[in-house]
Task: structure prediction
Amino acid sequence: MNAVTPMKPWKTPLLRVLFFVVGTIKWFQSGLKDLSFIHFARWVIVRRDQFPHVKAEQPREDLRYDYLFFFSNFNGTWNQYIDAFSAVLSSGLNAIWSGSEKFPGSVPVTPFKDYIRVVQFDTDYYYNCYPKATTNDVKAALRVQDELDEFRKTSQTLPPEQFKKAFQEFLVKVQADLGSTGVAPVGT
Amino acid sequence: MANESGQVYGLTILSPIKEEQRLDIDHATQLRWYLCSLPKDHTSPFAKINSTYLARLVVLDDVVFVGHPACEEHLKSRYLIFETNFDGDLDGYLTRMAKEVPEFVDKVWQHCVGYPGLNNRHEFIRYMKQCQVTTTFFFADVNDHTVQQTLTALQTQSALAHFVEKTQGKPPEELQKLFGTFLSHLDAAKPPLPGDRGEKFPSEDRPHD
Result:
């Protein structure tokens, strides 16, 4: 998902301070972490005089607004994503986008979705190295890998009876993380 | 640094797209056509640069007018947005792009103003950095593993689930022996292909699924 919103330039430093605080104090990211369906997301402020100008023949931009770009890589549907954002992170979203022109707030969700439809733009090419894995799949797989690495180190020399007991204990630890990956069901 | 989170680098590039009135089909459209034709699976150019988690290319036609009383304004150039998330450092990644997928890079950035080509790799890297915009805030949910480690873990997870299902109720001696075989197969397995969408995960072959 991609979105771009105009901001009055005097608001830009305030938003930078907010992002600095969120980036520095990890507790503020716990909401994003807890949602656990965003692989990567980024906010990029491009000031009105900072659009790349690489050659004299390229006309210079002449803008009154700074622009806030947002790029998100999430699993699930657009509606699930926006609904969850609105329900769980409304204060955070309001803090980030309140400086953007005509931002209606993230609650209630209908005007919020209307706004996103206006400021969103489409992706022309998208690549994902693990197209069948959700964020939770990735986290679970990494936990399984760690536990398996540990188990193989400690279990190799055990006699069979003890091995089976240790294997069962290992399974208890990883069983919740053994779901399979695949194409997600269609959500509504 | 705002472009980085743990081991992950978030690169954002805005390259101005050429505008030539004499062309029947403008550069932005040609670029979109080319991007449409690119594979998105394990044959993608980004699968070759196998430190890429997720990447996107977007033609930004203009900024957005959100309605009055906001001002309506327009960009003078269209921009190609290149957004990518990878493990490693920026120079190494750009060098890999130039070395490993030169045809792709040429076909995309030939439509952009000031693209110097790939004859001089340092010039290419300088150009890309000139077009880079600094990420203000970058969030990476998992940021302490490489792409290959993550793909291997997904392969392990799937294989282990399959193994557990097959070996339920086996006596201790047999279970231990089978587990040894399982580990050998796992160690000998080919590294997973980035971007692979094939039906190759054993868990998906289970007849009752």
About this structure: Strands of chain A lie at 2-7, 38-46, 66-74, 120-121, 125-128. The mean pLDDT of chain A is 91. The longest strand of chain A covers residues 38-46.
